[in-house]
Write a structure and sequence with these properties.
about 475 residues; alpha/beta; Rossmann fold; OB fold (Dihydrolipoamide Acetyltransferase, E2P); binds iron/sulfur cluster; single chain; pyruvate-formate lyase- activating enzyme; six-stranded parallel beta sheet; binds 5'-deoxyadenosine
């Protein structure tokens, strides 16, 4: 029996990639260990979206230096966006790393491990850069990796991510993703549908379709073009699937056919993550986001007019190159106007290989970025809390995920009543005192208290108490 340790940071796409790699290694006889020192193979699935994520990975690798010197037979691999971005630099900074594998080469991981064990050092398996070949060659060098699904590999067997698209062609000036994950490519609808059917047969009730700009999804053949709305209609008919979500949306591609599909297909969550990034037209132009605030506004009006019961969330970057106080205030005003369900707020982080790094100075001091981050978060949290208060007294349908993270850590969590967590159709986190048998059910929970990120409920037939939890979410896709 060989033991695998895997550490995953970053977005949902990375979580799915890790799930796939683990499943393929399990087929080869690996078992998972949470102790890096007990593992034979150690994999780091990395993120490059912000510098801090990279620094954390390099520091985690640094901690293994002595261990690897003492145990040269241990295999250390770096995968994900930082692998594609830094490539050989990883071997320079951490020479004891055995292989570096990009997100488009994950099918090669078992072979890379085998070749390392056979004595090969410093293997590099990455995709072509965006200027290193014809479009066809570059696309072929970034392959999606979606082998057979294994329900035991997911945090809960009732929920799954399903990749419908890889890569990104938007080239926002701050973002590494078009470089690290290559050109945008949609997966064939038949493949997506058959994977969704496998998931449904495994007892999965909620599927979240993943793409960096998921609503730009298109799959063209000579006969027809399949859009995201068509795909949702197709997946909607699969028995067993109760909920369909999709992330992340690009504002310019929020077409009416998609909004109508969200309105008309009851299994599709009326929850849309559509990052605005900034409330200032000048900053949006510098970011090359491809829309103005007025165009985002027009999109929001169409959502409001078309989708009843909608919930919208956003991402913002604060302290982008040359952002003035007035321009930052425009982001504050945008959050107040659109009253997002929640927003993920990021301090601008200059990234090598991006147009912003090449052309725009990163001139906002860290303290100013931090201040703006805190301010925006405070405004958003107040709005989220106010909106959540409206749920008090209401009963919501919750897909039960299982015991909350906090409950899972508690020594006495084996008793009949444990703190359970789940989500509403609109992706609101709900916690209540329940029991493990509820996991996987969609059940009514009555809300008695609300915070910015959590609704506290009770299942009316059972005893409950007001406990406080925090439930972590992964980084959203860009
Ligand atoms: N600096 C800060 N935030 C970034 N994001 C992407 N690139 C950067 C960067 N260089 C944010 C965007 C995106 C989210 C996933 O991460 O808001 O939507
Ligand atoms: Fe693509 Fe999103 Fe990055 Fe823009 S922010 S380049 S849309 S992944």
């Amino acid at each position: 029996m060989r033991r695998l340790y895997i550490e995953t940071v970053g977005c949902q796409m990375n979580m799915l990639d890790s799930e796939m790699v683990v499943a393929s290694l399990r087929k080869q006889g690996y078992e998972i260990t949470t102790d890096p020192l007990a593992a034979d193979t150690l994999l780091f699935n990395t993120c490059s979206v912000r510098q801090l994520a990279e620094e954390k990975t390099y520091s985690a690798l640094g901690k293994l230096k002595k261990h690897k010197l003492r145990h040269p037979d241990k295999v250390i691999g770096v995968m994900g966006c930082m692998a594609q971005k830094d490539q050989k630099l990883i071997f320079e900074r951490a020479p004891y790393v055995d292989f570096v594998v990009g997100p488009g080469q994950l099918a090669q991981v078992p072979q890379l491990i085998a070749d390392t064990n056979a004595g090969q050092a410093h293997q590099l398996a990455v995709g072509l850069g965006r200027r290193d070949g014809s479009v066809g060659e570059i696309k072929r060098s970034h392959e999606t990796f979606d082998p057979l699904r294994d329900p035991t590999m997911r945090p809960t067997p009732y929920q799954a991510y399903l990749r419908i698209q890889i890569g990104c062609d938007k080239f926002c000036t701050y973002c590494v993703v078009p470089n690290t994950r290559g050109p945008e490519q949609g997966r064939p609808p038949e493949q997506i549908e058959s994977e969704a059917r496998v998931l449904a047969d495994q007892g999965c009730k909620e599927i979240t379709l993943l793409g960096q700009t998921v609503n730009s999804y298109q799959y063209r053949t000579e006969q027809q073009t399949t859009r995201l709305s068509d795909l949702l209609a197709r997946l909607h008919d699969i028995p067993g699937i109760a909920r369909l979500k999709f992330v992340t949306n690009y504002p310019k591609d929020m077409t009416d056919d998609l909004l109508q599909a969200v309105r008309d297909l009851p299994k599709v969550s009326p929850y849309l993550h559509v990052p605005l990034q900034s409330g200032s037209d000048r900053i949006l132009r510098l970011m090359k986001r491809g829309y103005t605030v007025a165009e985002y506004d027009e999109m929001m009006e169409r959502i409001v007019a078309t989708v009843p019961g909608h919930a919208i969330s956003s991402d913002f970057i604060v302290g982008f190159c040359s952002e003035t106080d007035q321009e930052f205030e425009m982001s504050v005003e945008a959050i107040k106007k659109y009253r997002f369900k929640n927003s993920f707020i990021f301090k601008y982080s200059e990234r090598p290989g991006t147009r912003a790094m090449d052309n725009l100075p990163d001139d906002i001091p860290h303290e100013v970025k931090q201040y703006r981050n805190n301010e925006l978060l405070a405004v958003q949290n107040a709005i989220s809390e106010e909106a959540n208060h409206a749920f008090i007294g209401q009963t919501v349908d919750v897909l039960v995920e299982g015991p909350s993270k906090k409950a899972a850590k508690q020594a006495d969590s084996s008793g009949p009543l444990v703190q359970m967590t789940g989500r509403t159709h609109c992706d609101r986190i709900v916690v209540w005192e329940g029991n493990r048998r509820q996991a996987g059910q969609i059940m009514p929970v009555t809300i008695y208290e609300a915070r910015a990120h959590t609704l506290f409920g009770e299942v009316l037939t059972e005893h409950c108490g007001p406990e406080v939890f925090t439930v972590e979410s992964p980084l959203p896709l860009a």
